[in-house]
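User: Hey, my collaborator sent me this sequence without any context and asked if I could get a structure. I don't really work with proteins. Can you help?
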Amino acid sequence: MRNLMIIGASFLQLPGVKRAKEMGLNVAVLDYDENAVSIPFADKFYNVSTIDIDGVTKAAEDFKADGIMTLASDMPTRSVAKACEKLGLNSISFDTAIKATDKGEMIKAFKEKGVPSPWFFIAENEEKLEEIKHEILYPCILKPLDNSGSRGVVLVNDEKNLIESFKYSMASSRGAGIIIEEYMQGTEVSVEVIVWDGQTHVLTITDKLTTGAPHFVEMGHSQQSRLSLETKNKIIEVATLAVKSVGIKSGPAHVEIMVTKDGPKMIELGARMGGDCITTHLVPLSTGIDMIEATIKCALGEEPDVTPKFERGSAIRYFNTEKGIIKSISGVENAKKIDGIKEITFVKNVGDMADSINSSTDRAGFVIAQADTAENAVKACENAIEEIKIKTAKQ
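Assistant: No problem. I've predicted the 3D structure and written it out in structure-token form, which is a compact way to encode the shape of the chain:
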């Protein structure tokens, strides 16, 4: 039996753990949280932080891992890359892991390889911000160089809000600083990718719905993309070039792109499967491709199956809950009866605090649907959300 180590044991990694067990693998999970939800489903647990590179490497050696991977989380890819390098396993290089997790190094790679991308500045502290502030054009976007999930992302409309916004964004940085970028307007999509033997395979393009300014938190996704074939072909060209620019030669990639009036431009990418159930749920529902299995096979050094089995529509929509303590949730059973509904999940329940949606962690739950088209899958999700009543009370 082959050994697979999955870095992270939260609900984001749980689909990977379950699929690996179905494939007959011996599975270890690693997390700093001793109560993480994936632990009971694995064969072995290591109580180590996912970003502790030395700790992850030692655990992988102890487990005698034949493959190491993570799902839907950026920073653990550094640990994956370094541990795989030490054990001689199939993975991205550590240099690629840095470029895929440090937004500054990422955009520098884009510029070097001619990938369409926004103008940018990097400020490690307020002194550097002071030096460059007269060169900044407005509106612009501020993001931590070293975080994800919309944490610390903010739109700045003019210089008078720059310092306050910088402090807000810096509070979500792990210390690397802030990237200041062109505010790109248009249609946002993501591209779901598997790379094998240096060949980039685009599985599908995902249409996105966000909260918009100022934090741009993702509130929904749907596949297949409803954009024109010409636009989708341009998106695929940019995504493929971006993946190559950071050096991904094997494994998954989640590529985020803004389709502007000047054509598709890169937002950022991750050298891992996309989160928000995009790759674990929506890809198989819209294409029949088991992206989790494909990622596992890449980690084990085996050729993945990336052949589409069908073309259908799939969608996810998140609850936009009023701020306050959740007092009751009703209508779930009726919502489950709506044609096409595949899953209804709550990450916040009665008694929990529902806050303003400033990052992906503030969302209370989601609905997933499958239909003949993306439009009908979205309608099914919206009908289910309309049926479900989440009542909150202010503190």
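In plain terms: The CA atoms of residues 319 and 385 lie 7 Å apart. You can pass these tokens on to your collaborator as they are.
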